[in-house]
Design a protein that fits this description.
Blueprint lengths: L37 H28 L8 H25 L4 H5 L2 E5 L7 H17 L1 H8 L6 H6 L1 E5 L4
Antiparallel strand pairs: 1-2
Helix pairs in contact: 1-2, 2-4
Length: 169
């Protein structure tokens, strides 16, 4: 620099602070994408469960057509209940393998993103599916989103992902 040239004194950059919520709790989500509201998420879940129940109905219909008898005793209730859980587990596993959202999420125009705003990796999808199984089994995980500061359910916290509105692709 030439001797006569002046120089400006700038303040040092402030250290990056985590984003805080209205309750002074540090936010988990660092990107600007909004979390889908619980009603929007519930509609997507209802559509997904409707698909599971349709598939289960097809299973029962095929069972009946092939000569199966349905007697309501302890053993049959456990077998048919296990079949419903297996159909639901398979339905939730297929989008994980395909690397996409469930049909219910697509129909309601939701997409998944990480807390940093990045696309999901396969491990995120698997953790989310396992967290969803835990949430459905306990029902507390789903209700958690109603009291969470950022409206996140257990599967959101476990996988560090959340549903947000999809931008037209």
């Amino acid at each position: 620099m030439p001797e006569g040239q002046g120089k400006l004194e700038f303040l040092e950059a402030a250290p990056a602070k985590p984003r805080t919520l209205g309750t002074t709790v540090e936010a988990r989500i660092y990107c600007d994408a909004p979390v889908a509201n619980p009603l929007h998420r519930a509609i997507a879940a209802a559509l997904d469960w409707a698909m599971v129940l349709i598939a289960y109905g097809c299973f029962l219909l095929a069972f009946r057509i092939l000569g199966g008898q349905v007697f309501l005793n302890k053993t049959n209730l456990m077998v048919f209940g296990g079949a419903l859980l297996l159909v639901g587990f398979t339905y939730s596993l297929l989008p994980v393998i395909a690397g996409t959202e469930t049909p219910g999420m697509r129909w309601t125009r939701l997409r998944l993103t990480t807390f940093d705003g990045l696309p999901l990796e396969p491990r995120h999808r698997l953790l989310r599916m396992l967290g969803s199984c835990l949430s459905v089994c306990t029902a507390v995980g789903l209700l958690w989103s109603l009291v969470d500061e950022e409206s996140l359910a257990w599967q959101d916290h476990i996988s560090r992902t959340f549903p947000t509105l999809a931008i037209d692709r």
